[in-house]
Amino acid sequence: MNTAKPESIALFCLTPGGVALAQRLRDALPVTCFTSEKLLQPGFIPFGGSFAQTVQQAFSQYSALVFIAATGIVVRVIAPMLSDKLQDPAVVVMDERAEHVISLLSGHMGGANELTRELAAILGADPVITTATDVNQLAALDTLAAKLDATMQGFRLAVKTVNQMLVSQQRVGLWWDSEFAPHAERYDTRGFIPVESLDALPELDALVCVTLRDSQPALTIPVYKLVPKRIVAGIGCRRDTPLQTVAALLRQQLVENHFDPLALRAIGSVMLKQDEPALLELTQQHQIPFELFSVDQLSQHEHRFPASEFVRQTLGVGSVSQPAAWLMSNGNLVGRTVREQGVTITLGVSDRC
Known about the structure:
By secondary structure, the chain is α/β, with parallel strands linked by helices. Helix content is 33%, strand content 24%. The chain starts with 8 loop residues before the first strand and ends with a strand.
């Protein structure tokens, strides 16, 4: 997801008043400030070429862009770069007197609404948020997904449908699988109808299920399965193992443990496998990170698992998949380790909630 991270906020100011306001914000948040050469202050970065060119570069490099400028100027400069609400960064606009902070783009998925509220609180300004769910003081499916780092099949249509149902005062249930139920109170679920059991549903028009599982009981209402990315896979393999072999064994592991493939969060291995074609292609296919660990990092947990002298002589550590999965999941391994066709795969469940 493209949820805004505080460390990746680019701030643009075009006037002396904007620079002064930017300096106030720098004291409260780790923002990178850009301005023109003639307004440059210590710690600020000059526009590279022009204001528009600098914004174009920042649009793909930062998860949030904040402008102290007129809304019209901002709309014109970002218009050619707009692509997709699931990918575009958060864009927030404010006036140089800090009277209004406006969530302009990627309010939910990009985190612009949340950033708008944070900036307004810092400045004592009025937050301007126009998304229908927020205006009606309701949660939104895409915001919940972003907070959970979750996804679902047909995400775009599901978000549109569920959010419209919520603002239309239809009854949308929300059920949490056992892994997530204890943490449900952390999330904004206003407007959803709590569901404790799938065997005894209240009267509903639709149901959202938060789960890692690959299947759910058949129900008579529309069901939207929201899958948090929590499953990590430590993988070791012989050099140049075919992608098809590794992919098939990973699918086998997920099916065996009843995990939805969408729950896969990361693949990990030893640093020496950083250019292993099958592992690189697998992470690209799933659009997930490839986490690499040094021999020293893996060796610290090697004693927990069976070791292979052949692997030790080749890589410098007697086990790869299990220590890697252990590190990625904070020791929360699940299922058996597969050892087939020169490939070892161990799954873990990240404790991030």
